Amino acid sequence: MRLARSQEPAAFDFRKPTPGEQLIHFEHLTKSFGPKRVYDDLELDVRAGETLVVMGGSGTGKSVLLKCLIGLMRPDTGRVLFQGHDLTRFTEEQFIGVRRHVAMVFQGAALFDSLTVGENVAYPLREHFPDMPEDEVRQRVAEKLTLVNLPGTEKLMPSDLSGGMKKRVGLARAIATDAEVILWDEPTTGLDPVTTQSINELINSMKTKLGVTSIVVTHDMVSAFAVGDRLAMLANRRIVQVGTREEVRRSTVPEVRAFLDARRAELVPGGAS
């Protein structure tokens, strides 16, 4: 049912935040898929300018958080607040404005196979700024590809790219509109250690060079500690701890300890911890 005009949420009006202030707030979220309950009164804050890592095992709903933020999914109850705007009440049309400021780098990069690298990066510019002159589009595409260390690759096709290169093109596309918030969905899954390290460095460089706020969801413990200013542990349908890298390393929360010990065992020959 469509809201009456007087009840419609206001159009999204982004303002430049002060570093460290609350930018995003997931408030009392519940979410189920059929009989499977994913969230039960989930609470989480994201601060402007930080890289927040959401850790957790497979199937715990890490990626669902990102999708609720950009309107690809809706929580059953609760609110997703972005600079005080309740996004759960936004229409699809209103989310267009949100997606100019919040961009997502999908797990598989999600490039359009039939488009060149340049056309992929230009896609959100043409979608959000249809009147932008073509020479400005080309300039913006070149700038973003240079920023992710892929200069001069505009004419390549996705099939010509390695997995790491695809992630970089996905990031270039995500930041094409100068998004202030970047969402990373399992950015290092399926990548070799060298490429994983380059992606971690890329995530860190986006904060240094652009001052962006990032939310990274991952089950990769090495990557989590390499990029996260704060780490949030998702387990048992809620956030069980949020803290700095050192606070999480020293955690006595059972779910956190079990997750860290299991991941550490996977990295040590013979499973020793």
TrEMBL record:
The molecular function terms of the Gene Ontology recorded here are:
ATP binding; ATP hydrolysis activity
Query: InterPro entries given for it?
Result: AAA+_ATPase, ABC_transporter-like_ATP-bd, ABC_transporter-like_CS, P-loop_NTPase
SUPFAM superfamilies, alphabetized: P-loop containing nucleoside triphosphate hydrolases
Q: Domain (ABC transporter): give its ranges.
A: 24-261
Lineage, top-rank taxon, reads Bacteria
**What UniProt keywords are attached to this protein's entry?**
ATP-binding, Nucleotide-binding, Transport
Q: Know the name of this protein?
A: ABC transporter ATP-binding protein
